[in-house]
Design brief:
Strand content: 25-35%
Oligomer: single chain
Strand order of the largest sheet: 1-2
Number of strands: 2
Helix content: 25-40%
Largest sheet: 2 strands, antiparallel
Length: 58
């Protein structure tokens, strides 16, 4: 009985570990990520404004 429970647990863990990465994202033909531009404002040593534009895709 103990061997059956252990083997069932191992099989369940293996099935879940393979199913989790497949749910991570849908990458196929026609997949278009949602992207936007984020502006980061900072100041240098002399007080000048520095604007960095970063593209963020989800």
């Amino acid at each position: 009985m103990r061997k059956i429970i252990v083997s069932a647990t191992v099989a369940l863990v293996a099935a879940v570990s393979f199913a989790a990465p497949s749910q991570a994202g849908y990458y196929s033909y026609g997949y278009k990520p949602h992207c936007f531009i984020k502006k980061i404002h900072s100041y240098d040593y002399y007080g000048n404004l520095i604007v960095k534009k970063i593209k963020i895709c989800k």
